[in-house]
């Protein structure tokens, strides 16, 4: 529908001509027009994604409307649900405070806003998709990262370095363990410790490839630790201790622990901790249930129960 037009501008005769033009047969017999509804190719973005009392949340087309080309609205809607559901689960089950729900809008709305502005630029003056290849290709290239894995979150539950240098920006397309981005996918071969001797004799026949994405627990945080510091302190142990001290009954939903040391890292083939995750020996990653990294330790972070407790508090994790 053109600008300033209404449904009254589309009587049956005009609708029949439009049907014939769409089909490509000028003599097509159209017996009946069941109905005609107005539609504009436009962009709409909700001012808020939830009510102040945190009882109602908007997602998908209720939160944002994009032009139909590319399926960007559907992809953004799925990502909305992916971001919101685990937070609802945590709050409803008492594992996190209600403040966690506020981060849904903080994280998802800027992504939709950026995608909306780019997709809107793909409309021509009639509200249809621009067919100019020179202008349309750059728009698609800008949109793709926001619909796949090239975007990141900045919110109160994404903990970066003190100077903020580790947090993602609109141009942070790399997945290398950066807080606020997705955990990198790497194919790894994990050998059963009891079968190491057989592996050394038979080689690859005993290897069962898996993805690092399989480490993520969809219901709770996952702590990935790589060894311990020079004093023998391990993030794995201090987080377990912090959880017990904060809430002794919390182990109804413990943090998922993935722990490798110098003695066990040989069981993994195909993973470079420094290159793939940005981890030195003794460091750790804390990954959210949606696969986004909440925190990556640095050499400045003390491996203590107090520090682990402060991180859990920032994440609204009870």
Brief account:
By secondary structure, the protein is an alpha+beta fold. The chain has eight helices and nine strands. A four-stranded mixed sheet has the order 6-5-8-9, with no helix packed on it. Strands 4-3-7 form a three-stranded antiparallel sheet, with no helix packed on it. Strands 1-2 form a two-stranded antiparallel sheet.
How many helices?
8
| β-sheet strand percentage | 5-15%
Radius of gyration, Cα only, in angstroms? 25 Å
Shape: elongated
Q: What is the straight-line distance between the termini? A: 52 Å
Total domain count? 2
- CATH level 3 topology of the largest domain: Glutaredoxin
Helix content: 25-40%
Low-confidence stretches: none
Q: Give, in spatial order, the strands making up the sheet with the most strands.
A: 6-5-8-9
**For the record, what CATH class of the largest domain applies?**
Alpha Beta
Describe the biggest sheet? 4 strands, mixed
- Round the mean pLDDT to the nearest integer and report it: 81
Order of helices and strands: HEEHHHEHEEHEEHEEH
In total, the number of strands is 9
CATH architecture of the largest domain: 3-Layer(aba) Sandwich
Structural class: alpha+beta
């Amino acid at each position: 529908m053109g600008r300033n037009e209404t449904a009254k501008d589309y009587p049956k005769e005009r609708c029949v001509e439009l049907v014939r033009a769409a089909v490509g047969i000028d003599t097509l017999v159209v017996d009946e027009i069941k109905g005609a509804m107005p539609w504009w190719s436009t962009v709409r973005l909700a001012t808020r994604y939830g009510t102040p009392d945190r009882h109602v949340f908007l997602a998908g087309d209720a939160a944002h409307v994009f032009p139909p080309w590319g399926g960007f609205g559907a992809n953004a809607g799925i990502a909305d649900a992916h971001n919101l559901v685990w937070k609802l689960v945590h709050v409803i089950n008492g594992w996190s405070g209600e403040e966690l729900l506020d981060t849904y809008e903080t994280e998802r709305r800027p992504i939709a806003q950026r995608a909306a502005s780019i997709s809107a630029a793909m409309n021509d003056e009639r509200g249809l998709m621009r067919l100019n290849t020179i202008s349309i290709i750059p728009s698609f290239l800008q949109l793709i990262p926001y619909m796949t894995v090239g975007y990141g979150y900045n919110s109160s539950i994404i903990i970066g370095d003190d100077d903020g240098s580790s947090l993602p920006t609109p141009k942070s397309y790399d997945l290398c363990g950066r807080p606020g981005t997705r955990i990198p996918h790497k194919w790894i071969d994990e050998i059963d410790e009891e079968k190491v001797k057989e592996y050394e004799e038979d080689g690859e026949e005993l290897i069962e490839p898996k993805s690092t994405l399989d480490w993520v627990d969809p219901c709770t945080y996952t702590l990935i630790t790589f060894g311990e510091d020079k004093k023998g302190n391990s993030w794995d142990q201090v987080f377990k201790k912090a959880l017990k001290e904060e809430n002794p009954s919390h182990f109804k939903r413990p943090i998922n622990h993935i722990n490798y040391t110098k003695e066990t890292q040989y069981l993994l083939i195909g993973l470079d901790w420094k290159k793939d995750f940005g981890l030195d020996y003794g460091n750790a990653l804390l990954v959210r249930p949606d696969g986004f990294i909440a925190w990556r330790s640095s050499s400045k972070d003390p491996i203590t129960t107090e520090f682990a407790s402060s991180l859990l508090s920032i994440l609204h994790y009870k």
